[in-house]
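Input record (one chain):
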Amino acid sequence: MTLDVRERWQQELAQSYTNPLQLAEFLGLSPAWAEQHNAARKLFPMRVPQPFVRLMEKGNEQDPLLLQVMPLISEFEQLPGFTNDPLAEAEHSPVPGLLHKYQSRVLIILRGGCAVNCRYCFRRHFPYEDHQLKRDDWDSIERYLTNHPEINEVILSGGDPLMAKEQHLLEAIQRIERFANIKRLRIHTRLPVVIPSRLTQSLLDVLTSSRLQSVLVLHANHAREVSPELKHQLEKFRQQGVWILNQSVLLKDINDSVEALTALSEALFQAGIQPYYLHQLDAVAGAAHFAVADTEAVRLSAELRKQLPGFLVPTLVREIPGEPNKTPL
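The corresponding structure, as predicted from the sequence alone:
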């Protein structure tokens, strides 16, 4: 049977790896190595789509793509300052499903699930069950938007908002665009990076049918994540006027070198993606082994400015709870 593109991404999602031993077997890695890390799945479930796995280097336990998604015993380390809610998001949720941290924009948690469970995720402990967006919640969200005319941008997040089907996205966008003061729709997603077939024609039709300016913010941390298929799928979105940005997280042993960050920016540019932010790791419990010191982060950013034109240098930032914007370093 020939699958259409929409069915393909759903099938690839359903076939994701959820067991470290099975992933290790596919990559030709030692079962004993995988077994010693297996317990970390109890802290945060594992999910890795096959298209992302195919970008990994077989036989390499230190592959930078693998390390982002492989449960590791390092996650059991408890360090001071690393908490379950590093951004204090619970304090910024005035109505279910909505976060309002910055003056002119709000974030709506459209879907709680993700296509890939990145081990450094700052929401790995987030109580999505308390923020499941129900149809009745939209009434509260719309009342909130009515009472806050300073809001001109809505960010769809999660989880990953592109886990929602097109009809769900369309209904959400139609509700948002009723507010004349809202000009932009931003979608923060990692799904197209790990399953490029998610960039369907029907998704493009949903975005281009709206009066809102659409901005797709991807999340790639390494040059190899910018696959030929991702580049191909993005082309039609760019041609139809969808802005495409990328934000990364600075991660130890994954992209904490001038060479890796330079290659990432160059790969993004070749795919028509604008480097946007380079985030310092949010101090979430279980992810301390990914942390890079601020002094090293600042040094890397300075070296990047020597290697690249300014428009390819992402802004190095940290998100600090309570601050009115992300804080440049």
